[in-house]
Amino acid sequence: MFDLTKIRADFPILSRKVNGHPLVYFDNAATSQTPTPVIEVITDYYTRLNANIHRGVHTLSQEATEAYEAARATVQHHFNAAQAHEIILTAGTTESINLIASGYTSLLTKNDDLLISALEHHSNIVPWQMLCERTGAQLKVIPMTEKGTLDMDAFTNLLSSKTALVFVNHVSNALGTVNPIEQIIRQAHEVGAEVLIDGAQACPHIKPDVQALDVDYYVTSAHKLCGPTGVGMLYGKEALLNKLPPYQGGGEMIATVTFEKTTYADLPHKFEAGTPNIAGGIAFGAALDYMNAIGFDQIAAYEAELLDYATKALKQIPGVRIYGEAEEKTAVLSFNVEGIHPYDIGSILDKMGIAVRTGHHCAQPIMDFYQIPGTVRASFSFYNTQEEIDRMVEALQKAILMLQ
Ligand code: C6P
Fold first, then answer.
1. How far apart are CA 162 and CA 117, in angstroms?
2. What tens digit of pLDDT does each residue of 51-103 get?
3. pLDDT at residue 148 above 80?
4. Nearest to residue 94, comparing CAs of 67, 65, 70, 130?
5. What are phi and psi of 358, to 5 degrees?
6. Contact between 290 and 38 (Cβ < 8 Å)
7. Mean residue pLDDT across the chain
8. What average pLDDT does range 340-361 have in this prediction?
9. pLDDT at site 404
10. Is any atom of ligand 1 closer than 6 Å to the C-beta of 362?
11. Is 220 a pocket residue for ligand 1 (Cβ < 6 Å)?
12. Selection from 145, 141, 152 nearest residue 116 by Cα
């Protein structure tokens, strides 16, 4: 049962005031809020379990290791990975992408093409540009349309036997567009290319099945789906991960070390050098459990209602332009008001207790496409309400009167 009152009671931060007003938190695409059951798991870890993992024979270390590996299994089952060791626990989406980009340094040459979409976050652009600098490979861009979707004919034309890798986000953080990743993966595989999907913005709303998608790499961050910051995951097919060299050297990622030669640990430890964010990893598992208990179908259906309600309300306001009009969208509403800088709107909304993000959203190429400095972005979660949207619309109308 989707019980909004009960769900909201799980999020203590939602009852705080900001600038004298009850908080309206519409910056969920930047980071989601954390429910009490997840906060309690973090407290419990430091209260009862705190020890380094995979290293100690003592009870605390063994219990902490068990809890951490149980969280990996939760992540594995959530994404339907075939094997637990195909899940690498990382610091988040950015680290996961950098890990893969670093790994391909010795595998690419100047004869390889890398295809990237015009809708990417900087985290899924810059590591590949750096990889191209190291290898001489060519980065080619799948263009976008005015509606904020990918030009799939252009994608088909860009694919060739030279295409080594394709990187696309599942959902655009700036526009909310859900990209046709099934088609992208299928077509990329037809020419022998491997595909990395950046799921940072999809995972709060959609439950991906990596085996059904047949995706090569899928990455996300825990803090976008009710978990803590500084932890996330990389799914990779076993055969591909085995082909890649380690990302960082250090403790935990080795089998044997002598000054003459070091041999590396098996998956997943080969990519998990050093002491990880143990409490964060365990809480990541708890966050997935929390969201699964509500149900992703329920979450998506409710958020679609919120998006529809907010879109209709904003369209009534003269001078508002919405960016991102794909048929398939998650609950992200990016907009501008004619003649007003997005930053000014964001500042006034904040004075009224409403948190939205303003700026380029780490997706400058999208802003360049529309020739704008940025947008105001309201991003909704399953704990938001229509009343909160009414408050934003009212506050926006006041802001427009003040600024025009
Ligand atoms: N986007 C936003 O406000 P990290 O920082 O590693 O957890 O996630 C990076 C990242 C990668 N890809 C996409 C599609 C993203 O949306 C993000 C994070 C936030 O849109 C912060 S910039």
1. 17
2. 999 988 999 999 999 999 999 999 999 999 999 999 999 999 999 999 999 99
3. yes
4. 130
5. -125, 155
6. yes
7. 97
8. 98
9. 86
10. yes
11. no
12. 141
- The DSSP bridge partners found for residue 266 are none
Q: Please state whether beta strands 217-221 and 232-236 pair in parallel, antiparallel, or not at all (unpaired).
A: antiparallel
Tokens for 143? 């263009």
| The two three-digit tokens of residue 242, written as one number | 């085995």
**Cβ neighbours for 286, distance < 8 A, ≥ 6 positions apart:** 37, 38, 41, 71, 227
Nearest CA to ligand 1 atom 21: 30
Task: Return the DSSP state at 277.
Answer: -
> Taking a C-beta distance cutoff of 8 angstroms, is the pair 317, 396 a contact?
yes
Per-residue pLDDT of 257-287, as tens digits, reads: 999 999 999 999 999 999 999 999 999 999 9
Nearest CA to 114 out of 154, 163, 157 is that of 163
Q: Is the CB of 98 under 6 A from ligand 1?
A: no
**Beta carbons within 8 Å of 225's beta carbon, 6+ residues apart:** 32, 203, 204, 287, 288, 291
What is the C-alpha separation between 150 and 215, in angstroms, rounded? 19
Whether 173 lines ligand 1, by a CB cut-off of 6 Å, is yes
pLDDT of residue 120: 98
Closest among 374, 368, 375, 365 to 129, alpha carbons compared: 365
Q: Among candidates 276, 172, 289, 171, which has minimal Cα distance to 230?
A: 276
| Residues acting as catalytic residues | 362
* Residue 5 to residue 10: CA distance in whole angstroms: 9
d(CA 325, CA 149): 8
Helix orientation angle between 386-403 and 296-315, rounded to the nearest 10 degrees? 30
Is the pLDDT at 143 greater than 90? The verdict is: yes
Q: Is the pLDDT of residue 4 over 80?
A: yes
Q: What is the pLDDT of residue 2?
A: 87
Please give the domain boundaries of the chain with CATH numbers for all domains: 4-30+295-403 (3.90.1150.10), 39-293 (3.40.640.10)
Pocket of ligand 1, candidates 173, 175, 219: which has the most ligand atoms within 8 Å of its Cβ, to mutate?
173
**Distance (Å, whole) CA 27 – CA 336:** 16
